[in-house]
Amino acid sequence: MSKPSNNFRYIVHRCVGLFAVVSVHCSFSQLLASEQTGDEPSNVLMIVVDDLSDFVTRDGSAIRAKTPNLDRLRSMGVDFSDAHANSPICGPSRASFLYGYLPSTIGYYGYMQNRRAQNREYPLFQTSRNLMQRFRDAGYLVAGTGKIDHHTYSEDWDEGYWGVYPDYGPLPAKEGELVPRAHPNLPAPLNQKLFNGFGRLSDFPVFDGERGQWIAHPFAGKEAFPKPYTYNSSDDRDLMPDELSADWVEDFLQNSYETPFFLALGFVRPHAPHYLPDNYFDAYESISAAVPEPNYPLSVPAIARSALTPDDWGPDTYKNLTQTAEGSVLPSWIGAYLGSTTFMDDQLGVVLDALESSAYADNTIIVLFSDHGYHLGSHERVFKNSLWQEGTKVPLIIAGPEIPSGARSERLVSLVDVYPTLVELCGLPAERLSGERELDGRSLMPNVILPNDWGSVSPLAVFSAGTEELDRIEKGMLEDQHIALIDSKWRYIRYSDGTEELWSRNASMSELPVVIGPGLDAVTVLEPFRKYYRSLQER
What we know:
Layout: E1 18-19, H1 28-37, E2 43-49, H2 68-76, E3 77-84, H3 90-99, H4 103-106, H5 114-118, H6 123-127, H7 131-137, E4 141-146, E5 171-174, E6 177-178, E7 198-200, E8 206-207, E9 210-211, E10 213-216, E11 227-229, E12 231-233, E13 236-237, H8 241-252, E14 261-267, E15 274-276, H9 278-282, H10 314-322, H11 330-356, E16 364-370, E17 375-376, E18 382-383, H12 389-392, E19 393-394, E20 396-399, E21 407-414, H13 418-425, E22 460-465, H14 470-475, E23 481-486, E24 490-494, E25 500-505, E26 511-514, H15 522-537
Parallel strand pairs: 1-14, 2-14, 3-21, 4-14, 7-15
Antiparallel strand pairs: 3-19, 3-20, 5-6, 5-10, 8-9, 10-11, 12-13, 16-20, 17-18, 22-23, 23-24, 24-25, 25-26
Helix pairs in contact: 2-11, 8-11
């Protein structure tokens, strides 16, 4: 889709690699060959997408977004079709994959801990290096733009090589000031919360009978102040934040650099709210009305049917979407989410085109993933923050020199594996600093010879805050948290009140609820998970 010309470009003087955050399974022998045949180290382009459901990007899904560029990237490399985040929440997930440790190792589980995380007060942040620091220590230029960590830290990036601050705008404004609610034209009670919002940018907000405005509003860094946003039509408007980031990367790749680069690009969309140019709404207007509104399976326990913490907006927002004064607007909201996904995909296309036409096309590793999954009405919830498949499953793709193209791996992997995989893939020094803990993730490189056979491995672990008492969360006690343990056959969930839940997993990657009762062989099925859970408590 077309976009307006951008008169404001960021010029960068050293090159960056494209790294999309993804758990990666590549052929060990092929990767070694790439190192042996090339004298220069590979660049990395890491692309992190916010709130992207894996399901809407795959053919055969009941709700499918148009993602030609994500499909294109899959055709260029290895698609990991059973990849999962280690937290279904932005902040803990991003800290986990950027540092290479499980949320339980860091002690960071939920929104209520964001202040401490923002100040990097957790001891592990003081004794360990994140991906950016690790690559800088190896002599890489480190550059970034958009939403990478949940907060933006200037010390993570080389001076002069940070691009665009994260921004969830455009957002409704009155007299130039942000209105901390959704679009006023939406029906009540949906219009009460900022992130419930969605709508066409041609539909200007109206307050007390007077037309309001749109503003851009960065939520982090020194640019955290509102800016006017102009919209006349889909082709005559200001650029949105993800477009600015994509253009920043495009300009970056046109320059020469003396060292290899690690470039991180974070797309904010399809994170809510979904205010979009009209053409992205038009693309889904005809299909959104057919979206079903599924209900809970009977086996789901009571604790899982409500908000897991006070900041879990999923169940309440689902009710607000389906029970407005004008009836259900869930199909329209889903259409807006799909439009946001296609908007992001268009920016991915800008970046891929720029890389392919640059001097770095043949020596840049691309990794892409989402920070967690997303609900679009399943289990009577929307948004993130669930331990079910919809909340944890993420797209994960890796492409680059000597990496098989159009390949698919069905191995069960998680985002905590990204860090050690990149370290080994790029041949970085393996030595840890004094006091630096061994990573929780495992490198995926050596296992490509048997592409879908890991052998004997521990279950994959996903964590979510299970209490509203901040002092108990801060203690990091595992029994206060919700946890999902996943292997090739089962998803076992243990809630903070001790309630257990079980889902069977099959070859088609779908999951079905299983009633825990007399008909279940608990010794064979449940005890291995309970034993592993106890081992996590002892770490």
